[in-house]
Hints:
Radius of gyration of chain B: 19 Å
Number of domains of chain B: 1
Shape of chain A: elongated
CATH architecture of the largest domain in chain A: 7 Propeller
Shape of chain B: globular
CATH topology of the largest domain in chain A: Methylamine Dehydrogenase, Chain H
Distance between the termini of chain A: 172 Å
Helix content of chain A: 10-25%
Number of strands of chain B: 24
Distance between the termini of chain B: 49 Å
Largest interface: A-B, 22 and 19 residues
Oligomer: heterodimer
Largest sheet of chain B: 9 strands, antiparallel
Amino acid sequence: MLQNIKIATLGLGFVLLMAFGSIAATINHFGKTDGLPNDAINFTIQDKDDYLWIGTHSGLYSFDGITLQLCKNNDLRKANITAGYLDNRGFIWIGTSVGEIFVYDGLKFDKIEVPLLQKSPIIQIISDTKGKTVVITKNNEIVEYVTLRDFKSYDKIDAESLIYSAQMVDAKTILVGTESGLKKIVLTGNRSSIGNFNLLPNTKVTHISKSNKPNVYWISTEDQGIYEVDVKGNGQITRNFSKDIRFPTKVNCLYEDEERNLWIGAKEQGVVKITFQTTSNSIINIDYFATGDKWDKVSVTDIFKDREGNTWVSTFDDGLLKFENEIFPLIYGTSKLPDGNVFSLARDPNDNFWIGTGSGLYQLNFNESKWNINDLASRHLIPADKITALNLDSNTLYVGTAHYGLYILNTQKNTVKKLQFQGGELANSIKCIDLPTPDELWVGTVDGVFIVNLNTNAIRRITTSEGLPHNNINDIEHSPNGRIWIATTGNRVAFYENNKIGVLTDKKFDITDINSICNDLQGNIWFASNGHGLFKFNGKAFDAYNKTNGLSSDFCYSVSCDPFGKVWVSHQQGLSRVEPSTHSTIKYVGFFGNTSFEFTVNQFLKGDQKMWLCTDKGVLRYSELNERLARQKPKIIINSVKIDSIAHDPRSEIILPAGGYNLTFEYSGLSLKNPAAVRYKVILKGYDKDWSQESPNKSYFKSSVQEGEYEFKVMACNEFGIWNVEPASIRIIIKKPFWKEWWAISMLFAGIFFSIYLFISIRTRRLLADKKRLEDLIAQRTRELELRNQQILENKDQIEKDASYITDSIKYAKRIQKAIYPTISQFKRLLPDSFVFFKSKGIVSGDFYWIEEVGSKVLFAACDCTGHGVPGAFISIVTSNLLNQAVKEHGITKPSLILDEVSKGVTLTLHQTVEDSSVKDGMDAAMCCYDRNTGILEFAGAYNSIFLFRDGELIEYKADSFPVGRFIGEAYRTFTNHEIETKDGDVIYLFSDGYADQFGGPDGKKIKKTNFRKLLTDLKSLPMEEQREKLYNYFKSWQGELEQVDDVLVIGVRIKR
Amino acid sequence: MNKSKLRFLCCCIYIGSIATFSKAQPVPAADENIPFLATFGKKASPSYGDDDNIQIFFLSIPKTFSKPIYIRVFDADCGGSNDEIYGGMDTKTKFSLYGGVGAYSNPDAQTIHPKGNYNSGTLLATKTFVQSTQYDNNWYTFEPIYAADGEWVPALNSQVIKIIAEGVEGDDGNLYRYYFSTQPDKNVPIEGANAFTFEYTFRMPDKGGQMCHLYPYIGKNVVSVQQANFDWDNGGVIKLVSYEKKGEWVEMSTDNEWKTSKHLINSAERERSLDVQFVASTDAKPNNNICFYITNQYGEFMPFYNIPIGGKPVYKYSNSLDKLRETERFNKEKIYKRSNK
């Protein structure tokens, strides 16, 4: 029956609370679809790298906020994981339902020895004050570990007692929850003894949780609710919620966080959170996370708070819930009220919270074992009007309404007195209330300020007539120095001092339309304006804060200062917090979970020591601790390093042999609050020049990395842009190929140098040997030459005598030759316009020119006998004689016949036979016969052609290709006779091959027939003597210092008809 | 292994294989028509109907059953409207669950007079109930256990959990029921599971003329059985019904005494269940608690299965006429006996 009443009351309470139910915190659910088994989750803990470890009935999972991974250890993949613990070295201890313990060192799990008498679930792993880890089983066996290998087991305590929870009170005392209540185990030597605490009813204690207070523990029971117990001495119950109908009686676990919120994990009733006053045990609020939402029947198994302040709730078969850390948790939600906008807030000494909304005043009190929510409008105490202002003085609450004037409420007696001001509706539209002194109440209205003397009830009024800038009063704030500041919608700030109104302006800033005023700890006055930002006045000058220098918005609706010196400003869509000492500003926009709030008034409640923020959907409360937790730098770790897809230990330096490698790094920066918002920057030192741009990528890949020393570094930042200071890093050294090693290069160079040295030395040795040999040879030859020289010297005189004799003979021969041949004058006589260029190689010549006259015919020839010098001269005499004989004796004038005749004569004269063909002497010739009467020129040649220039054109008449002279018995060949009809001006050239064969010139080459032809072409028009001179000059310049090769003969004849 | 044990083993294997097709139901089962199990405090007189203050049940679960199992106790405390109170309500009843090695296989656990190590195995959960309105006429659910927590018994092809109800203090009688469920807050049977005990201590229905049943399984090597009943106290008739037996009366005990009788089993009755019927006379006294067990010719205790193996036995000639004749014969015998007292 009693139970039913309790349930009914509970239900009614839920209904009552619906009006002020909090909007659900941001709750994330992780279940089967995320990879968790559809099974009981026993606990959640966090390791030193911020990974969560989730112990379930079907294995151990790790979680980085995004991805769940089943533990790789085979024993733990399917085990029932019953206990988990993080020791002071950062190792994770995991206990299973069959009495096994595994310790995780950050890389792998090691199974350690657990000396149990009975295979029993590990129910708790805790640490004593000396750093030893104590393992407790359900069937009450205790093992104490100094190190992983050094342990001591205690005697089994009580065969029929089961332990469900335990906490170390001190090094030798363990507080345990059993099926029959709370007990104490004392460890002495190897023995353990159990004793009752006798504090609680004889019921199963499901959980023991340490409170923030010393020696105090929260105890949850299977069916008798919750107790707070001080275990000092014999122990005492300090708080008993077992009969409090607001709280569940079947509780599985409890957790008190640093903010002294108590989280209750109920059986089939979800999660309940009690918010206590910071400085006392008063309850500010109770949140039911099971009411009205899908977690109604959730059975909670464990509650855990991570490093960032998020609360993780493990459930029996509903997965894992994450309650995101709220910097501004919603304490009282008003969205279900007719007008949920909150404009004013107060808290009286009796722990009543007074909330002024758009639809009236509400009184909330959660401290008694029932809800006390009073809607004063429904009790006809204060109208359901917009409550614009609240001001509490001891037990008197002054309530300003938007339309109905001022109400004075006695909070103890619950009586109300109404105070209306003269002046109609505007005068009774209250905007603000201040109590500068205990005797005077200042009320700001739309129509001026009303000052009420609380002793005499006299009322006086201040308006624009007295100097106010405007009658619409937004705020009144008194300073410690007695000045009363008045904020109006006018363009100046007003103040009241010494019974006079003063105004403040500033030349630099537009101090206008002030909504709110507050004092800070340094005596500065802060003005929040509507559209012009925030101003600080230090008594002499103004300073401005606005959007351009950090404020969330220039529209500031409320300003207040907390006891820590921080100035809070409410804007419509967020908050700003100014740190006056550093002039820094923090914006709070988007910090409010999934709900958007419009802020109205902020206020610091002294009793609670917290900043409270009124909004359109209820009242928030700032948690500095939660903000500090939320802004934790993310821990960054390198999860894996793969070199060409082969995993390496990411914790130690990697040294690789020479080669090119593909490097893959995977890393994660853990921020469980908002894992998706984590950003990374990476650098591979030794490869990259600078850090990468920040990105959400969790892996880094580089292909074909060659030899070198590298260091991979990665940093992470959380959603607030806070970067971790020390990046995670790993060194990788890729060795050089041996041939790039300094010693190899040195050896190579040494080898090269040695080789060169060897080569040089061998060669030098050889050269020296050759040199010696040559020197020896030279010496020998020199000796020989010296001998010869001696001989030559000895023969020299004789040779000189002989040479002189020979030279004289030759010279005499030349005279004879010269006498035989015609002279130049003779030549010219017969051919007047002609020249003969003749230059013999030696003293005597093989070339000769010949001329004879027969009647009207002039026969002339240029002849070149074989050889030159003396042999040529001899032949020339023979052939000259034959020529004379042929013409003069035989009367032959036909050139071809002449040459035939001479040819016969040469053969007969020299007796040349075919058998003796090694010597064949003869003559090359160009023979011409010019008939002065007919102008016919006949020509026959033996090897030597003639040139005929006519009208600038050159005609070459080719000679026969055989010489004058033949072997006896050789086939007889006759010369060809050419007949040419000459014209006046024709120039004819006859020549031997000596001119064209002369070596010289710039390249030491022959003149050649082509050049000779060209030369004659250039000279042909010149007078014949000039031609001869030019031919001579050209020949000399061509010859230069070289020896004359052959006899030279050129005859030129110009025909004149 | 000796022959008797081998026989028993074969019997168990057969039972176990059949049992896998069953679903654990409430204990007592609906077919048994037994309102409550009874366990008295250890100071209670045996004449109240409980010879040893301890009642042991076993729950066999298929090994493959992986979901959590909830042992639920109805009216676990002693002192409410259902219980039998003598003097003040000072009785504490402890319910304990055991699993692990030895929970079933320890011989002391399979006895009818728990002594020695009857609480063998690993204690999984326990709770001692005093008088409490919270659990009066209400269910108490133990924390979930799993099949793997039990003892693997190859003969039964099952994991076995032992449930012991023990009157640890007081002299009152705690009347209660069990349900072995897959849900913590609802009674949902466990597929493939079955509950059994070797000695039944139960309360007869208070209303006269009601019939309760127990169903021991008769293995193929059983040639005779010996029944033993305690403190029947002229509550009516106890008889054996089987395929062959229409209703064979047993020796019935009076107050605070054991009575035994031997009954032959023929071949047609083997490998079937026997129906032990407890027929209350129309003027039977209320609060009649009785203990009952049955052994085979080797003296081995035969388990009573919550769900009869092979189904409820029906006499081969059973029809309405026979039933009428049977009732007449019963009444005549009763009159005869009374007149001869």
